[in-house]
Design brief:
Elements: H1 16-26, H2 34-47, E1 51-55, H3 58-68, E2 76-80, H4 89-93, E3 97-101, H5 112-124, E4 131-135, H6 144-153, E5 158-161, E6 169-170, E7 173-174, E8 181-185, E9 198-202, H7 205-214, H8 238-248, H9 251-268, E10 273-274, E11 281-282, E12 288-291, H10 305-316, E13 322-323, E14 338-340, H11 343-351, E15 352-355, H12 363-375
Parallel strand pairs: 2-3, 2-4, 3-14, 4-5, 5-8
Antiparallel strand pairs: 1-9, 6-7, 6-11, 8-9, 10-12, 12-15, 13-15
Helix pairs in contact: 1-8, 2-8, 3-7, 5-6, 9-12
């Protein structure tokens, strides 16, 4: 059996371990420490958003933003339909009602026309949402300008879930540089990794400072333990931050390789449809995603037989692949939740497959995947 090819495994440059040793030598092992501060400064400079808080995960960052907005039982939160469950999970835990919005055919990200329709409906019914969560899918930015204008019309906060999009661009803006705040993920499969971790960024200093305080149990600045509210244990550790500092220094190299991998697939699979790149920006190509010949969307929530058989065939050859995100409105846990549109997300899920896209992939690795797809 040939060696395993994973979907998107961590890639280490070699610069991370000396920084971890430096963190150990400083004896700042627990959360907080000089590496956390250093990572926040470097990340803020990279994405050109002035304030940043390093946290335990991107999900924790979203939870802190929902706390900031006072999301509670009975509130509504609008969210992209085609995404991972963590985009809406923290709001659901707080008792909010999700409303899902289908994606745009040309970008696979939130359809601004549907957002405008949904907010107009909500305004007429006097139930505007506490937040709109727009997801930068597979490393592609949403249409920030349009989403911001629509949200501003109704005075609804916009949160950008840029978990998958670090390094992508929206015109001259970095992924996440929109709305009230953005969140990023450093999970093991993301563009850069800290093994686990996330970042909350905002142009609003107060949002980030309050999130940082709440991430450290909301302790007041006194010599004893004083609390005016109940917080969380959401801070990133100094050791993890050291990995992030090393990874971030190689972001351009990672982005170049991701786009090169996708170009190899495109050259070798001209008969496949690939995820389009929005005309307003540059994707980081976190994952290379292809669409098989269109089949009717499966309302029961399963990939097409073609997609699943292909995935199994690749797995038999020791190659990991994965269907496109299952739309949130098809998830059993959200049965009965309102969704505007849904047919585009359903079709992309039914016919889509994510191919191996790790930075360590070689041209022969990609050609191996291509040859199996051709053979199958």
């Amino acid at each position: 059996m040939d060696r395993r090819i994973f979907l998107s495994p961590p890639w280490m440059s070699g610069d991370e371990l000396p920084l971890v040793h430096e963190a150990f030598d400083s004896n700042y092992i627990a959360p907080c420490g000089p590496m956390v501060d250093r990572f926040e400064r470097a990340f803020s400079a990279r994405v050109q958003i002035p304030h940043a808080a390093a946290l335990a995960s991107g999900t924790a960052a979203l939870d802190l933003l929902f706390h900031e907005l006072g999301v509670t039982h009975g509130d509504f939160v609008f969210c992209s339909d085609l995404t991972f469950i963590s985009s809406i999970g923290p709001a659901f835990h707080r008792g909010a009602h999700p409303v899902f919005l289908d994606c745009d055919e040309a970008t696979w990200t939130m359809n601004p026309d549907l957002l405008e329709e949904a907010l107009a409906d909500a305004n007429r019914q006097n139930r505007l949402p506490k937040a709109v969560v727009a997801v930068d899918l597979y490393g592609q930015c949403c249409d920030y300008d349009r989403l911001e204008r629509i949200c501003e019309t109704y005075q609804v906060p916009l949160i950008v879930d840029a978990a998958e999009a670090l390094g992508a661009r929206y015109g001259t803006r970095s992924a996440g540089d929109a709305g009230m705040a953005a969140v990023y993920s450093f999970n093991g499969n993301k563009i850069i990794t800290t093994s686990g971790g996330g970042m909350l960024c905002s142009r609003d200093r107060g949002i980030v400072e309050r999130a940082r305080k709440r991430s450290q149990q909301s302790r007041e600045p006194m010599s004893w333990y004083e609390h005016l509210e109940v917080g969380y244990n959401y801070r990133m550790s100094n050791i993890v931050a050291a990995i992030g500092v090393g990874q971030l220094a190689h972001l351009d190299e990672i982005l170049q390789k991701k786009r090169e991998i996708e170009s190899w697939y495109r050259a070798g699979l001209p008969e496949f449809a690939f995820m389009p790149e929005a005309p307003y920006g540059t994707s980081n190509r976190w994952l290379t995603v292809v669409q098989f010949s269109a089949e009717n969307a499966n309302k029961e929530g399963h990939p097409s037989a073609t997609v699943e058989c292909t995935r199994q065939k690749l797995e038999q050859e020791n190659i990991e692949s994965r269907p496109v995100w299952k739309p949130m409105h098809l998830q059993p846990v959200f049965q009965g939740c309102q969704c505007y549109g849904g047919s585009v997300s359903e079709r992309l899920f039914t016919n889509g497959l994510c191919l191996p896209s790790g930075v360590s992939l070689t041209r022969p690795d990609v050609e191996r995947v291509i040859s199996i797809l051709h053979r199958w």
